[in-house]
Specification:
- The two termini are 26 Å apart.
- By secondary structure, the chain is an alpha/beta fold.
- The strands form three sheets. The chain has an eight-stranded parallel beta barrel, surrounded by six helices. Strands 12-11-15-14-13 form a five-stranded antiparallel sheet. Strands 1-2 form a two-stranded antiparallel sheet.
- The protein is built from twelve helices and 17 strands.
Amino acid sequence: MEIYVVNPGDTVDSVAQRYGVQTESILYANQIPYPYELAVGQALLIPNGQEAEEQRNIAVNGYAYPFISPWVLQQTLPYLTTLSVFSYGFTAEGELLPPQADDSLMIELALQAQTAPILTLTPFGPDGRFNNNLIQALVNNQEAKERLYGELLATMAQKGFRGTDVDFEFILAEDRDAFTDFVREMRERFNAQGYTVSVALAPKTSADQPGLLYAGKDYAGLGAAADWVLLMTYEWGYTYGPPMAVAPINQVRRVVEYALTEIPAEKIDLGIPNYGYDWPLPYERGVTAARTIGNVEAVQIAIANAAVIQFDETAQSPFFYYEADGIQHEVWFEDVRSMQAKFDLINAYGLRGAGYWQIMRLFRANWLLLADQFEIRKG
């Protein structure tokens, strides 16, 4: 497949003619709606009907909430090794708490597509935020852990899950080793029953990196304790931060290079964001909040406002500016160029695969490009 960047005066028909492909194939791959307008600077995936001669086998995970559109899920499952159901919680006493919405259909659809459903475990408090006091209560209490292990195993057997993904954030520094022991103990018990255990890691660039997001995560210990890890290499640009790329490739590379000093490449999944942000300007810390948008939606915003999409070569990410209702906006998102940069990183470092946060919005060009680059392992 090839990538073409739209110039002034281009139409879908003229691009199709240039490459000798059907107009419909470009419309389908890039989710271009009627009346088939393009934005200057938009990156188009051009399907040519040919497969790459050599494809490395990788694992691909996608996180999804139980209320995902069944159609979006079915469109995405062929490209996934595992589907992480977000999410199950727990009490300080180790009682497992299911998601509010029923996850039975997504598990059933995953199994039909030979994609392994994974139970995602998160320490959410009553306010819906990560709660490090809840983590502390669990990982330092053997009785609570035993109860949780038992309820997880029973739930996985009953519902058809193939493993558990541990997504704990803001772990206190004093709980670092207890958390690592928790993951190690869980894996020993779960592997014996045929289940996997993975763990999500905040994007560290050094072992002693300060900060609540990082201090409680021991890369070397958790890399050894789990079957595989996800590097959460996104959220440099985030809702309450200043406008910038969500996953700038120069920063992502720093995380990967540090992780490889602590964890074998065959255990590392690269985190990939499937979203962008729209910031109103001027940005004011503590006041401004960006709106989360889909990558296909971002292009439509650019078209609606006659914005020219630009590309940051350092971050390897697209962005643009526009004005609406007298307010200036800055938008950063992902396109096939930024995804290609991430796929190149997976290849260059021989990583296990990719993990997408999250798959609630369909980004078909990404999946087609991924399948063109790699052979996707099925669960």
